[in-house]
Amino acid sequence: MFAPFMINAWIAASIVAVIAGVVGFFVVLRGAAFVADAVPQGAFAGAAGASLLGINTLVGLGVFALAGSLGIGWLSRHSRRDVSTALILVMMLGLGALFLSFTEEYSSEIFSLLFGEVLGVSTTEILPVAILGAVCVLAVLVLFRPLLMSSLAPESSAAAGISTARMELIFLVIVALATSLTLPVVGALLIFSLMIGPPAAARSLTANPLAAMGLSVILAVLTVWVAIAASYETYWPIGFFVGAGGAVCYAAGRLLAWWRTSRNRRVSGS
Length: 270
What we know:
With 270 residues, this protein is mainly α. The protein is built from 12 helices and no strands. The longest helix is centred in the C-terminal third of the chain and has 32 residues, at 238-269.
């Protein structure tokens, strides 16, 4: 389990989990789960286009993730965000289908972009993920207060001089950065699971924003660690354990929150 070829998997998965836990906290807080799902799934079209052009697929991922996020932000000013997100997702998926129709040699890469290849991460891939991940986390920490205010009380934040439209755009760019750099490691479907399950569980357990973000990171890291260990022992796909772990985190968090609320009611009633 801790053989030399597994070390990269542990490091890369831990980095991705930290990013997912930090960014996912605001994804849940802002009710942007659909955006967190649409951006990485649509960005695979950029990887397909980059493959056709013979350039690094990470470049295509980044360009399409950023373009998709900016498109969602612009359209959301004129219509509902869920409608805007759906339109951008459909357009990017359509482009992805078009790009894929021009080649028959992309099926394995598509699978890895959807479900990840964390056990196949090379040493050269870790440093870029770590650097971009640090930038992403640092951006969230620097903008923590305005992001928090614009998420919880948009009207009050506007009165305080915080532009909700600007914060929304910055948030979408952060989501694009987070998803594009983590896609090759855990895939579109699994980064979505990590960005939703652990943060949602953390938010149900504590109302303190910083504590919830910290707990979100801890739960996300534990999820990928358990997934790697379970996949190594059972030879089952790591994606199954990541997805199941995210769902279990959320279910356990909601159950614990319900038990705590029920207990407090009984104590106050007595």
